[in-house]
Amino acid sequence: MPLRALVAVIVTTVVMLVPRAWADTAWERYKAVL
């Protein structure tokens, strides 16, 4: 696999996972406040 393709896959994975992790963290904080 070319390096450029590997970087593209990694970037795509990070972009998909980061918002989900951030939303889960925000939801846990929200429940903790309540």
From TrEMBL:
GO terms for molecular function: cellulase activity. The keyword Hydrolase applies. Its EC number is 3.2.1.4. It comes from the Bacteria. Keywords: Glycosidase, Hydrolase. This is Endoglucanase.
